[in-house]
Amino acid sequence: APRRTRSIIMFLGPLLHRMDSFRLPYAGGCDLGTRTIEPHMIALRRFGLDIAATEGLYHAQVDRSISPGRPIVLTERGDTVTENALLAAARHDGATVIRNASSNYMVQDLCFFLEALGVRVDGIGTTTLTVHGVPSIDVDVDYSPSEDPVEAMSLIAAAVVTESQLTIRRVPIEFLEIELAVLEEMGLDHDRSTEYSADNGRTRLVDLTVRPSKLEAPIDKIHPMPFPGLNIDNVPFFAAIAAVAQGKTLIHDWVYDNRAIYLTDLNRLGARLQLLDPHRVLVEGPTRWRAAEMMCPPALRPAVVVLLAMMAAEGTSVLRNVYVINRGYEDLAERLNSVGAQIEIFRDI
Fold first, then answer.
1. Which band of pLDDT confidence, cut at 50, 70 and 90, is reported for residue 32?
2. Is residue 80 a contact partner of residue 53, using CB atoms and an 8 Å limit?
3. What is the pLDDT of residues 173-204, one digit of tens each?
4. Nearest to 158 by CA among 344, 338, 16
5. Is the CB of residue 160 less than 8 Å from the CB of residue 154?
6. Are 313 and 269 within 8 A, CB to CB?
7. Residue-wise over 65-74: b if at least 16 C-beta within 10 A, else e?
8. For residues 20 and 340, what is the distance between their CA atoms, to the nearest angstrom?
9. SS3 181
């Protein structure tokens, strides 16, 4: 299981305070091109961690004489990179400054959790975090992470692509404001409730109702940026949304090497996507979706986008090898069925 996900690398930060040496299997995850752990190591070497990669394993050694004496500057404003640095800093006795940190939703949630454990974190929601670490953490806490904005975006896209009215509750609006601004420009008809707090007491939520809309292609290209920009994981959903809009939309998925290529799988369902280069696709709409039998792309969000397009297509489609979706969503098919989809789960013998 560890080789099939990226989450195994999140053990690096916590374990360096518990063991002088340890081994972890290589990180897996979506097939999105070359993805190294070097951005993590740039932060974690400052805590004495050294890693040799051999025979499918990371061999880690910790030199406890090394500690960060000046601010840690992350060379990549990545979510998991920032989280690993936070987890390492939380058990480092003293103040650790992390610059060029991600301020995305999962990073903020981790900061809130660390505060519940007694670790003070200054600068939450900014790109500079100061972590006041403690040498030992031994407390019982009850904490609820906030809702996932990418899952909310999945449901927004489902409503748009299938031309349905759908109310999505408990949407973390702070992390979808850019996406909704783009959709409003395209002509999306929607309402949102007044804001209320998530169970963590910090994240702002709304209930969002999306209605069938006649969309127009946006004037500018759609591209991701670190928070508070358009979420990197939400870019693929705009491929399906652009496919039902009138006109041509340029999508620039500059972060990953391969992901834009997988979006062209929508062409088998009737879409018109032109791959301009490994990072850019030109989407022409509107689309008359048609059913097809396909293998799941080996990347989570493009796979879900294909599933949503199949829901909009007349007739019966078959999507095989859906492990990549199940890895990232809990009971997605069942929940979509609860709001009107007709998805049957089966196993090939």
1. very low
2. no
3. 999 999 999 999 999 999 999 999 999 999 99
4. 338
5. no
6. yes
7. eeebeeebeb
8. 53
9. helix
Is there a contact between 173 and 192 (Cβ–Cβ < 8 Å)? yes
Domains in the chain with CATH codes: 2-133 (3.65.10.10), 149-337 (3.65.10.10)
Residue ranges of alpha helices (H) inside 102-148 are: 105-116
Rounded to whole angstroms, the Cα distance separating 16 from 108 reads 22
User: How far lies 14's CA from each of 47, 87, 136, 164, in Å?
Assistant: 11, 6, 12, 45
Number of helices (H) and strands (E) in the chain: give both, helices first: 11, 16
Whether this model's pTM surpasses 0.85: yes
CA angle at residue 203 from 198 to 207, to 5 degrees?
60
Give CA torsion, residues 4, 6, 8, 13, to 10 deg.
170
- Residue 66 three-state SS: coil
Tell me the backbone φ, ψ of residue 2, rounded to 5 degrees. -60, -35
Exposure letters 210-228 (e unless 16+ CB within 10 A, then b) = beebebebbeeebbbebbe
Give the whole-angstrom CA distance, residue 87 versus residue 49: 13
Q: How far apart are CA 162 and CA 226, in angstroms?
A: 29
Q: What sections of 69-148 are H helices per DSSP?
A: 79-90, 105-116
Question: What's the pLDDT at 3?
Answer: 56
Provide the token pair at 98: 């992390």
Helix (H, G, I), strand (E, B) or coil at 69: coil
